[in-house]
């Protein structure tokens, strides 16, 4: 097998120009597809479409004319004056013209039904002919602040803000619609100020931030890598080759995603940064080995051929373990976006590995330029001094590591979790400010949607839905509900003066006739009356734990009243609850899955279970410490930070593999353990540190991401890589027993 | 018989002599004369509502109409709607009879944009219209079969629509396709199909109104229609609604 591999390597060296040409053609082709890649900021796509909560959420979108609601808040010194009302009216009318908006609801177009004796008058709540009448305006302001139905819905308590609700078509291009709305607002030259809120604007903002992140972070990441690689290799090829490797991997993955019509998500937008950091590692090890052999007097061609033979095993094992780390998300995660992220990053890792044993040596033959000096004796001495110190203070270092791990273990269960998308935005960001206004001044934008399936032509069944609604209002204190029950009761009051459900099904049928065809009703009941939706709105500030308890109580209640009806609960709060559960499960399963798989792999390579355990020890300690730090610094386990464990294992274990394989080979040539360790540290140890700094610096750039989970992720993964690199060197330098040395 | 021959001859004559040179205003006048010709009508109608997923629900009504703006109708199917009646009188007054409550309610609406009994037709769509009087118009294009006109409602019409685009069949002078525009958007399309001659008049027996925003559509089919039966005025009263 070795000889076959040797021949293969020789062929690569021989046909280096063909390899380069093929790689370039492949890159250009993938580059073409990369330009067509699309972005998907919709967080409901995190969960698989088969998930019950998502299914019901999509069903509402399909059957009730869109599940997405956007908000515009118009703010001025006083809403109930002529200028402000006219601006709200103008804005609402402009919004109605936008393709993709199927309904606009604002104080300017609300319709009220009034009755006197046998006359029913349907008219607009605000008459725009009376705007000069101060008394009229004052009365209307009072009405919006005190009426049970309208209070808190369209006018803020201070009378300075007015809410315009936009109902989006379910199949519209949300980003395009949002962009058009913002454009209209900009062109309108309003005196009042506009704030945007609700899911469509949130998704649009995330989409913008994804693009911004990609363009903003990639360049500094590349620059940092250039600096570190320049310091480490002191040569142009040492900088450019790893960089090319990473960039080609990134383009390949993006191209494949585009061909397969997989869109970039809030998670997969970090793939380029990861590949930039990880993809360079294999060629760094390769270049390092070539330089090492050149310094021993070999010419470039010989050095490359031998490096290929020697380095193939450690690099392929490192790539395999990293691949396992990422692919473990496929089996370990319920969340679609994370699975996609896992698959495509794993593909990128394979491409990087492949390039490091084909493209990298082929290029190095052409560049030919040997490095003048490998490392000065002075530098080596300094490094040896550090190593000696590590060995000298080994007991203290071990005690420190164990203590830190124990402290971390204590804090680990207290780690907080976050699934609410608004938490993605940094405090003080424009969008968060807008959202806070909607939450504070209006009834809130979070909505449970309770679907009740069954014959809604039956008063008996409607009474059950009413019972659930009353329970939610009276027992749970969630007063802002919207339902067909309220509409029917109001209509019944108009007909026979009693605000209650009608006495019999015939009367109900007559009431339906009166209200049928009202656009806003399509959002509450199916046309065939086989199902209705009860909306329960509340403010965003509630903790996820509280929201979960509310949902559980509603679930208990609907079970009690079930009868002929079939209840199910959905809405964004339910999506968050499901996401939260999935994030926790995903973290635990994928971390242990990758740890387990890598343990099996290491035990197999080193033919020893103990070595398998020792191999994963540094990364195990690292992960515990990182989760401990997360708990202490109150960084939540979220959609991005849940990836830390598996990524750390996948990347961090490489250090163990490189170290142990080199140590094994040094021990074969040199029986003295100290000399073997020293040689390992001076060669592979140095490459590990170069890689640690490159990878950490690459990830550190993510700290500047506009999205909070990614920023936290950047910080944590940087920390993880530094800890993993150093703990590999420290733990292996002090923990290899005399028996194992033999 | 003489009437038919006269009508046919005059149509053919109009077609040959003027069709190429007809001004948009003349086309609308011709449309009005064809559409508003009957003195009264008695219609048995099936209304099929089709939602965006293709599910259908069917209603049947009997409707009487006299002149341009007097209309009375009663639901005869399904059973839960049976007996519900409506009486539409000028201007903008609608009397609704709710049999379960045994009450008549007079509904006055500022807007005629409300749905007519859950259909995609609004009360305004159900009104008899005199295009030549209520709209200004311009010719957009024409081909061998159709005139395409853009008609804009006059202020007095108090229409909810911004404009309509009519495709007028050159043979029958019936607008077989009407596109409705609200606030810059084409929101609905009405298509008239199955044009037949009943008594002295040409009528489209099937009307399909598609709501382009919701995907919902309403199909109105005339099961049978009787023209000029000299309907008495007392049909268009509350008393008749309660019967």
TrEMBL record, chain A:
InterPro entries: Acrflvin-R, MMPL_dom, Mycobact_MmpL, SSD. Residues 243-366, 580-738 form the SSD domain. Coiled coil: none annotated. GO terms for cellular component: plasma membrane. The chain crosses the membrane at residues 18-35, 217-233, 240-260, 266-287, 308-335, 341-366, 396-413, 588-609, 616-637, 643-661, 688-707, 713-736. Keywords: Cell membrane, Membrane, Transmembrane, Transmembrane helix. It is a multi-pass membrane protein. It is found in: Cell membrane. Pfam families: MMPL. One of its GO terms (molecular function) is transmembrane transporter activity. PANTHER family: MEMBRANE PROTEIN MJ1562-RELATED (PTHR33406), MEMBRANE PROTEIN YDFJ (PTHR33406:SF13). This is SSD domain-containing protein. It comes from candidate division WOR-3 bacterium.
Automatic annotation (TrEMBL), chain B:
Residues 67-242 form the Uncharacterized protein TP-0789 domain. It holds the Pfam family LolA_like. Gene3D superfamilies: Lipoprotein localisation LolA/LolB/LppX. InterPro entries: TP_0789-like. This is Uncharacterized protein TP-0789 domain-containing protein. The lineage of its organism: Bacteria, Bacteria division TA06.
């Amino acid at each position: 097998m070795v000889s076959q591999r040797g021949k293969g390597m020789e062929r690569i060296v021989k046909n280096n120009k063909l390899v380069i040409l093929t790689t370039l053609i492949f890159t250009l082709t993938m580059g073409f597809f990369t330009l067509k890649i699309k972005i998907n900021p919709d967080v409901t796509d995190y969960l698989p479409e088969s998930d019950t909560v998502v299914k019901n959420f999509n069903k509402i979108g399909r059957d009730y004319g869109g599940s997405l609601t956007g908000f515009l808040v118009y703010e001025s010194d006083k809403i109930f004056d002529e200028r402000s009302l006219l601006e709200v009216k103008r804005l609402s009318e402009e919004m109605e013209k936008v393709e993709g908006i199927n309904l606009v609801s604002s104080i300017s177009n609300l319709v009220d039904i009034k009755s006197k004796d046998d006359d029913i008058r349907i008219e607009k709540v605000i008459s725009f002919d009376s705007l000069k009448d101060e008394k009229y305006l004052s009365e209307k302001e009072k009405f919006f602040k005190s009426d049970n139905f309208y209070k808190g819905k369209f006018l803020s308590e201070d009378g300075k803000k007015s809410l315009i609700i936009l109902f989006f078509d379910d199949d519209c291009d949300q980003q395009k619609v949002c962009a058009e709305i913002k454009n209209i607002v900009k062109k309108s030259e309003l005196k009042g100020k506009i704030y945007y809120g609700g899911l469509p604007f949130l998704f649009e903002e995330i989409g913008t931030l994804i693009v911004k992140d990609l363009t903003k972070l990639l360049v500094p990441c590349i620059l940092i890598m250039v600096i570190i690689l320049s310091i480490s290799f002191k040569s142009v090829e040492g900088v450019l080759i790893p960089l090319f490797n990473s960039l080609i991997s990134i383009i390949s993955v993006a191209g494949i995603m585009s061909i397969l019509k997989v869109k970039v998500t809030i998670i997969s937008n970090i793939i380029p940064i990861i590949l930039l950091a990880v993809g360079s590692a294999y060629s760094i090890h390769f270049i390092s080995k070539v330089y090492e052999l050149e310094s021993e007097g070999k010419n470039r061609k010989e050095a490359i051929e031998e490096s290929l033979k020697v380095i193939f095993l450690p690099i392929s094992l490192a790539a395999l373990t990293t691949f396992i780390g990422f692919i473990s998300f496929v089996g370990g995660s319920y969340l679609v976006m994370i699975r996609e992220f896992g698959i495509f990053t794993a593909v990128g890792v394979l491409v990087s590995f492949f390039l490091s044993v084909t493209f990298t040596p082929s290029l190095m033959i052409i560049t030919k330029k040997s490095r003048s000096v490998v490392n000065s004796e002075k530098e080596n001495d300094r490094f040896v001094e550090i190593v000696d110190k590590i060995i000298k203070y080994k007991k203290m270092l071990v005690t420190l590591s164990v203590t830190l791990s124990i402290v971390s273990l204590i804090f680990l269960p207290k780690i907080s979790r976050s699934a609410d998308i608004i938490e993605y935005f940094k405090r003080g960001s424009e969008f968060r400010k807008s959202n806070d206004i909607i939450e504070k001044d209006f009834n809130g934008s979070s909505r449970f949607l309770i679907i009740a399936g069954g014959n809604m032509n039956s008063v008996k069944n409607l009474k059950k839905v009413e019972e659930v609604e009353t329970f939610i209002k009276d027992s749970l204190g969630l007063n802002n509900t919207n339902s067909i029950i309220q509409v029917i009761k109001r209509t019944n009051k108009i007909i026979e003066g009693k605000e209650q459900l009608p006495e019999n099904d015939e009367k109900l049928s007559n009431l339906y006739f009166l209200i049928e065809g009202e656009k806003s009703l399509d959002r509450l009941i199916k046309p065939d009356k086989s199902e209705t939706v009860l909306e329960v709105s509340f403010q965003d500030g509630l903790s996820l734990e509280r929201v979960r308890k509310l949902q559980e109580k509603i679930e208990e209640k609907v079970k009690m009243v079930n009868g002929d009806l079939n209840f199910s609960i959905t809405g964004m709060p339910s999506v968050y609850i499901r996401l939260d559960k999935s994030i926790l499960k995903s973290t635990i399963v994928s971390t242990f899955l990758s740890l387990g798989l890598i343990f099996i792999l290491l035990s197999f390579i080193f033919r020893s279970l103990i070595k398998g355990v020792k191999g994963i020890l540094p990364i195990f300690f690292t992960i515990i410490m990182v989760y401990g730090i997360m708990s202490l610094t109150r960084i939540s386990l979220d959609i991005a930070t849940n990836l830390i464990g598996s990524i750390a294992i996948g990347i961090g274990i490489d250090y163990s593999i490189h170290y142990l394989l080199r140590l094994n080979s040094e021990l074969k040539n040199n029986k003295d353990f100290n000399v073997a360790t020293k040689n390992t540290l001076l060669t592979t140890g140095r490459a590990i540190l170069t890689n640690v700094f490159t990878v950490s610096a690459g990830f550190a750039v993510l700290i500047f991401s506009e999205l909070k989970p990614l920023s936290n992720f950047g910080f944590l993964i940087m920390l993880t890589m530094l800890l993993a690199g150093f703990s590999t060197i420290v733990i292996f330098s002090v923990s290899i027993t005399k028996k194992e040395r033999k | 018989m003489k009437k038919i021959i006269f009508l046919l001859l005059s149509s053919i004559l109009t077609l040959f002599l003027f069709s190429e040179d007809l001004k948009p205003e003349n086309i609308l006048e011709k449309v009005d004369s064809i559409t508003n010709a009957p003195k009264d009508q008695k219609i048995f109608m099936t209304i099929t509502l089709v939602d965006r997923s293709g599910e259908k629900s069917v209603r049947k009504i009997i409707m009487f109409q006299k002149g341009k703006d007097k209309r009375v109708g009663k639901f005869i199917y399904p059973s839960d709607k049976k007996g519900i009646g409506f009486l539409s009188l000028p201007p903008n007054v609608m009397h609704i009879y709710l049999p379960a409550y045994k009450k008549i309610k007079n509904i006055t609406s500022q807007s005629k944009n409300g749905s007519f009994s859950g259909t995609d037709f609004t009360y305004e769509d159900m009104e008899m219209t005199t295009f030549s009087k209520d709209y200004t118009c311009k010719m957009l294009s024409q081909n061998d079969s159709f005139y395409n006109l853009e008609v804009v409602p006059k202020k007095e019409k108090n229409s909810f629509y911004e404009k309509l685009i009519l495709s007028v069949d050159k043979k029958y002078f019936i607008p077989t396709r009407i596109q409705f525009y609200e606030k810059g958007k084409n929101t609905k399309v009405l298509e008239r199909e199955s044009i037949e001659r009943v008594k002295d008049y040409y009528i489209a027996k099937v009307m399909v109104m598609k709501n382009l925003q919701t995907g919902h559509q309403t199909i109105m089919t005339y099961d049978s229609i009787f023209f000029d039966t000299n309907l008495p005025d007392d049909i268009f009263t509350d008393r008749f609604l309660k019967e």
